[in-house]
Backbone:
């Protein structure tokens, strides 16, 4: 078992999920990630964020990368939201998209934010992109298979309405719970400083491989055409909440290291 996979198993136990077998996250999910990250950023980091983000919160700007999708000027950034790779490969061994992917997108964001010659305007743009992409990294269906577009082509029903596996994990399961992003963030599972430190270990690539372990399990959690209802939420909502919490904790690490 890969070390990062072992960390995932330990994490599942720490968070007491019903099952570690649990679009991006939808707007709610991304805002949860931003709000949780804010709890773990240093005061120094907060000062830099406040300056670059014009006093807007991490939760507020976390959806920026999705909002610009409707503007053709930003079409090139579409491939940054995901990584497609077979389950028998890791990111390191998989064939890379020459147009870029989630990992290369995060790397470019970090590079520009650290560039002393970059304008504050460019740094702010790529900072907002980064905040979103670290959230996407932890949405399991964003580390999915190319042939079904990360679960978008796996048709299911959600509470008797037509849907797909990607959409269920993006937003429907979370939004059906009926809590705001701030309520979800405030009720994240309590963890110790040593547990936070353990979750922040590794690189972005390690985290992608970590999420892929969960993605494979989620692919096996449904049958195409299945009507997913309360039982599915009972099994997997805690897994989604855990992923959002891990994303926030790791986003804070990335931001603290930047600033």
Residues:
């Amino acid at each position: 078992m890969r070390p990062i996979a072992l960390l995932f198993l330990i994490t599942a136990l720490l968070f007491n999920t019903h099952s570690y077998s649990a679009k991006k996250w939808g707007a709610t999910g991304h805002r949860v990630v931003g709000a949780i990250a804010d709890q773990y950023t240093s005061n120094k980091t907060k000062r830099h964020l406040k300056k670059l983000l014009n006093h807007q919160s991490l939760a507020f700007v976390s959806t920026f990368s999705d909002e610009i999708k409707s503007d053709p000027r930003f079409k090139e950034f579409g491939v940054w939201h995901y990584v497609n790779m077979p389950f028998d490969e890791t990111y390191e061994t998989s064939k890379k998209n020459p147009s870029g992917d989630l990992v290369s997108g995060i790397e470019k964001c970090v590079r520009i934010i650290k560039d002393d010659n970059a304008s504050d305007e460019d740094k702010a743009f790529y900072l907002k992109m980064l905040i979103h992409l670290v959230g996407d990294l932890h949405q399991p269906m964003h580390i999915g298979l190319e042939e079904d577009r990360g679960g978008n082509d796996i048709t299911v029903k959600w509470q008797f309405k037509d849907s797909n596996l990607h959409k269920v994990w993006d937003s429907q399961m979370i939004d059906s719970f009926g809590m705001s992003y701030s309520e979800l963030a405030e009720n994240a599972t309590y963890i110790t400083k040593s547990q936070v430190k353990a979750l922040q270990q590794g690189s972005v690539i390690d985290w992608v491989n970590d999420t892929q372990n969960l993605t494979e399990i989620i692919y096996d959690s449904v049958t195409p055409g299945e009507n997913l209802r309360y039982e599915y939420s009972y099994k997997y909502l805690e897994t989604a909440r855990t992923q959002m919490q891990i994303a926030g904790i790791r986003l804070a690490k990335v931001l603290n290291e930047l600033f």
Q: What stands out?
A: Strands lie at 155-158, 161-164, 227-228. The first strand starts at residue 155 and ends at 158. The mean pLDDT is 92. The first helix runs from residue 3 to 14.
